[in-house]
Amino acid sequence: MKQAIAANSRLEEYFLTALKELYWSEVNLISVLTTMSEVATDPELQEAFKTHTEQTADHVIRLDNVFNTMDTQPEQVHCVGLQGLFDEGWKVIDETEAGPQRDMALIIAAQKVEHYEIACYGSMCTLAKTMGREDIAKILAQTLNEEKETDLLLTELAESNINQEASEEPASV
Q1: Residue 124 sits in which domain range?
Q2: Considering the entire predicted model, what is its pTM?
Q3: pLDDT tens-digit profile of 64-90?
Q4: In a domain, 56, yes or no
Q5: How many structural domains does the chain have?
Q6: Which of 30, 61, 86, 173 is deepest in the core (most CB within 10 A)?
Q7: What is the band of 43 on the pLDDT scale with cuts at 50, 70, 90?
Q8: Alpha-carbon Rg of the chain, whole angstroms?
Q9: Domain presence at residue 1
């Protein structure tokens, strides 16, 4: 049986910092996803973004629960990595015309965020287990699974019609 990591260890400090960055990311992602759902033209893509916006609100609640489980107040710490990916999404929105090419670019921007989140949540699950906190790992694993499902859905949407339609559309200037 693994020995639990002592409270206030460096590992726990790192875990809490990463948790705060995830919290900032999820809170701010709600705004990005809401806008993506509004500017997407494909109805299925709009719905996927709306659904993930709702899931992201649940992710915030789960992170609140993790903070509470650790007897720590929820706190946001700016995440430079995801800020860059959010900025890419805003750039797509600002610099592309509505239509299939924007939808394709939105999927790419969204999947970059999903892949980053999958890496973060996967690592956080592993750290929680290492710290002897299976309870926290279980909470984080729920979100990890939803992030993976969203990534798969976005891939399916791209492969089903959006990328083909984007390739048939004249290049936008």
Answers
A1: 10-168
A2: 0.89
A3: 999 999 999 999 999 999 999 999 999
A4: yes
A5: 1
A6: 86
A7: very high
A8: 18
A9: no
Q: Is 157 left (phi over 0), alpha (psi -120 to 50) or beta?
A: alpha
Where do we find the tokens 């089903």? 160
Length of the chain: 173
Long-range Cβ contacts of 26-30 (<8 Å, 24+ apart): 26/56, 26/59, 26/60, 26/63, 27/60, 27/76, 28/82, 28/86, 29/56, 29/82, 29/86, 29/113, 30/56, 30/57, 30/60
**Per-residue model confidence (pLDDT) at position 79:** 96
Establish if 99 belongs to a structural domain.
Answer: yes
Residues with Cβ within 8 Å of 130's Cβ and at least 6 positions away in sequence, in order, are 2, 5, 11
